[in-house]
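Subject: mismatched residue count in predicted assembly?

I count 954 residues in my input, but I want to confirm that the predicted structure covers every chain. Input:
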Amino acid sequence: MAALDAVLGKIDANRDAALGRLFDLLKIRSVSTDPAFRDECARAASWLADELKGLGFDASVRPTEGHPMVVGHLKSKRAGAPRVLFYGHYDVQPADPLDLWVTDPFAPRLDGVEGKQRIVARGASDDKGQLMTFVEACRAFVETGGVPCDIIVLFEGEEECGSSSLPAFLAANRDELKADLCLVCDTNMWDANTPMITAMLRGLALEEVVVRAASRDLHSGIFGGAAINPVRVLARIISDIQDDSGRVTIPGFYEGVSELPPEIAEQWKKLPFDGAKFLASVGLSVPAGETGRSVLEMIWARPTCDVNGVTGGYQGAGSKTVLPARASAKFSFRLVGQQDPEKILEAFRAFVRARLPGDCEVEFIRHGASPALQLPSSSPALTAARAALAAEWGQDCVVGGSGGSIPIVGEFKHDLGMDTMMIGFALEDDRIHSPNEKYELSSFRKGARSWARVLEALAWQENQGTLSSAERRNVTP
Amino acid sequence: MAALDAVLGKIDANRDAALGRLFDLLKIRSVSTDPAFRDECARAASWLADELKGLGFDASVRPTEGHPMVVGHLKSKRAGAPRVLFYGHYDVQPADPLDLWVTDPFAPRLDGVEGKQRIVARGASDDKGQLMTFVEACRAFVETGGVPCDIIVLFEGEEECGSSSLPAFLAANRDELKADLCLVCDTNMWDANTPMITAMLRGLALEEVVVRAASRDLHSGIFGGAAINPVRVLARIISDIQDDSGRVTIPGFYEGVSELPPEIAEQWKKLPFDGAKFLASVGLSVPAGETGRSVLEMIWARPTCDVNGVTGGYQGAGSKTVLPARASAKFSFRLVGQQDPEKILEAFRAFVRARLPGDCEVEFIRHGASPALQLPSSSPALTAARAALAAEWGQDCVVGGSGGSIPIVGEFKHDLGMDTMMIGFALEDDRIHSPNEKYELSSFRKGARSWARVLEALAWQENQGTLSSAERRNVTP
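Triage response: the counts match. Full output below for your records.
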């Protein structure tokens, strides 16, 4: 590990210069959603391409219909090195309301006392600070003999406004971008001292259900008692979907849902996560999911069926004695493991149809579906990265999940056939998207050191033959 | 029955003059909801008061905060005659859209061929034609020796715009208006040849339920699985309220609900009412009420629980991954027999509270409650009137119900302690409230004869001692 020590030493030696470079990037007002900042986005892309070129990357700014991509390639000198694709985004959220910022959001500064300093600026945490941790790790490798993996860097400029150019770009550059593993740096640590790899992202299937009965709204005095009420029909469907233990009753729903690996389950149990406090933050106290599951399991590792909206009949103030002719509900399913969204939706539709009394018709409106994404817990890359992060932070690394979906990870999986390991050093309280966004200086510094350790560990794992890059690269997505 | 024959003969002899008088009333544009017709309303009231005075009534126009009332009293010369209060309204609906009328809505005319003629004008059926049938019956009695009952006439001028002056007027004139029985002429026949007494009106209780859980709307990715969803809670409540046989499951709900008297049940079974056709008119085919009940029973004689509106979460197009913090539903209960609205609402609230999981709060918003109104099937007045109507029309008289409520009947019951018998000669196809409103000439002519028979029958019944007017009049409402 003499080589790694040299890299880490180099990162430490570069720290002030590294901060200067990050500040330069933070000064660029690359707000992607506002056309007024179009040139600033282009400037941020150029700045990054130049940085990468300076490190020896074969880097370029690649135009799209929206803001440009930055792609850079740097080969390792080591034979059989694994290939990784690192993704980040250089665009930022709008800074307004400006009057809530203590200082100019694009005039980065250090705040706080020595040892507890933070970088304050729009994009400090989301995502310029995070992506620069990776760039600085690469720099240190380059300055001490070369990177341990073949590295592809992909920086996007539209993450904060819908990533509309990304799918076409991935499709058009599939071969160039294909790697053994994706690394995405847009996530949090467990807490300020505990690193986390986000290895599970729940999937999402969305379906609207419209139940129709009579040909028009009816007077409840004249027809009440004889005419079917679609609100009642829909209510019964919604009610039937969960049993008293909180389990979803749609046949086959749990197909592909696995229990947590015992080691991860054990780790989650020990995490200082206070489910009661989590719920109390929004005025709740009783976990509403499956009986016997912890809150963390409910939100990270278990599938759900929820109603996001329901509508039927009279919506105004007071009363109206009407029997509505239609009622509708918007359902969402959070999916985990190997649940197949299409199968789930098909089973859901059958479930609804089976509960449709005579005279009722149902319409299904599809609003999208994507499966869960999970880095297998047996993945050698995960094992390697966990150990690397634990070494840097002196704490066991949490293997966590995310209840929500992160579209880019889905794109990598479905369009390029690549698994993604999400490692980030942001904190819950970084105020991303809000005034006075900050990034801990320790996140920036130890983040760069963390990437150095992770890259070295992935290369070492590869040398042990547990990552078979050549084979994996040939898998058609 | 020689006396009655003379009265009926007088009605026949007066028929052309009677039609002329009705036409005079129909020419008055007494649209109550439009302030532009205020003077016309006053003119209609004066016209009616003058008519009554001409018959010997002690009649007057009585001002209110809105349009005036007309009250008239005429004593019978017979000792111990029963006292009846006859209610009608002289105001009419606006006539627009005028271009859909074949002729001026306030230029009454006869339409159709001899033997099948109808009176066409705004108010012909609702309610000027109907109330004049009663006035013409009184005229014939007066011209042949006197009315058989003590008669109080009450004509209102605000029925089509909310009857806002009526409750205060009833309260202020309680002693003057108290009678043994109310007669209301604002209803239909079963069909053009079959008379009907409407003897059951369902009551109505309205209650809105708001279920609240989290302190704000939640992201379904972050909280989905752990946070309770008020839409689900509400759906379960709605779903639980009926069992699979269509019965309402609220404890005590059927307290005070009786089976139809066998004779009425038998009559309803024989009625040429096509439940399938009734439902088909609004695109339905399966009666949704209690298993084993006929459609007519469901809408006339059975209580219901319905949801008139439901709302929760995202209401716009597309999808939104939100867990709503609140959901609400507007419930209505149609009540029958002796069901107590307050008890029903209390039981309903308990039913809801019992299904409220932890973290949920419920708010109940009251939108009013009134009990069902029912003329007891054993009522001697009902028996007498049925026989009288059957004699006039040569058909058994249907004892029917109405699924909806008629506020005036409730006022008479609750404010004055009086039962109401609703007899009218309108038909389903009279186009009331619509262009080209009509009233069958046979309804007008035989309607007057019907009232003569009914009044005579009520007086005869009284003489048999089965109506105890003196006692009944002393009952405090």
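The two ends of chain B are 35 Å apart (CA to CA). Marking this ticket as 'not a bug'.
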